[in-house]
Automatic annotation (TrEMBL):
Record-given protein name: Endochitinase
Species: Bifidobacterium longum subsp. longum
């Protein structure tokens, strides 16, 4: 007999802990939370699979994002005698 693992806040929290690259993206985390609970009837493993698909699609739509947050503007050192 196969037992289905139900969705829980603890399960979602474990997913976030296992994926530290999501830290700093509050909007994405809220979206992932909604996707997880929308698919709770499928059970935890399948709901997490859908989270992974959603996060990958989000990363493809937002290429300027990195694992530690938004890319910082590159600061180039000023050369002597030139004004910005």
């Amino acid at each position: 007999m196969i037992t289905r693992i139900d969705c829980s806040e603890a399960g979602f929290g474990e997913f976030l802990l296992a994926n530290p690259q999501l830290d700093g993206h509050a909007d994405l985390i809220w979206q992932l939370h909604a996707v997880y609970w929308r698919n709770k009837r499928l059970g935890h493993p399948k709901a997490v699979g859908l989270l992974i698909q959603y996060a990958r699609a989000w990363a493809a739509r937002n290429p300027g994002e990195t694992a530690i947050g938004r890319l910082q503007a590159r600061k180039t050192p000023m050369t002597q005698g030139r004004r910005p």
